[in-house]
Design brief:
Strand content: 15-25%
Order of helices and strands: HHHEHEHEEHEHHHEE
Number of domains: 1
CATH superfamily: Vaccinia Virus protein VP39
Strand order of the largest sheet: 3-2-1-4-5-7-6
CATH architecture: 3-Layer(aba) Sandwich
Distance between the termini: 25 Å
Helix content: 40-55%
Number of helices: 9
Largest sheet: 7 strands, mixed
Amino acid sequence: MNEKITPYQSASVTKKEQVATMFNNISGTYDFLNHFLSAGIDILWRKKAIRELSALKPRLILDVATGTGDLAFEAIKILNPEQVIGVDISVGMLDVARKKIAERKLQHVFTVQTGDSEGLNFEDNHFDAITVAFGVRNYENLEKGLADMLRVLKPGGKIVILEFSKPTAFPVKQSYNFYFKYLLPVFGKLFSKDARAYTYLNESVVAFPDGRSFTQLMDKVGYQNTKHRPLTFGISAIYTGIKS
């Protein structure tokens, strides 16, 4: 699902490889642009996503598509887990994450490694919780990625996914579409020198099966008690599910 929406529209290179290249290209400015382009709202979204795990009190957390580690840092701050492992396909993003881990002196609790969301290098039933922020829409095979995350989640464990969605109410829908389609690529090119990355962002959000369509896919894969929580007029959403 979503395989045809790729960053650089190259038929000779897989979506997975293109996504890795794209994030390597923008890794140096990723954090700044994230906060600038969302007016800092993305920070609040991450906090809300992590609080979905407060009752569970997970000790071992896997952060998939960890990027520069922002969601994992929130998890450490709010949940105080024993260990967080972050995986990502972008070496450039992981290099930034490692610098941030060292600056915060969190090497004892947070480690990162190169990893593929559709073929996680962990044993079955291993993690208390799994988190993903703005990553699932980049999966080459969304169903396969969801299934492999379910595999490594312990029974009773919970997954929390934060992802962009498509608002439907006027005038938020119209303003959001204009901003994502026309303004975002301009800012992206100005600050990251990769305008295509931010054009792809809009395309990937439009193509993503958000809302009930996504929870239905989670149900199909095998998650239980799936829920969908819209944030900020439906600009993004939190999805949760349990492994039985």
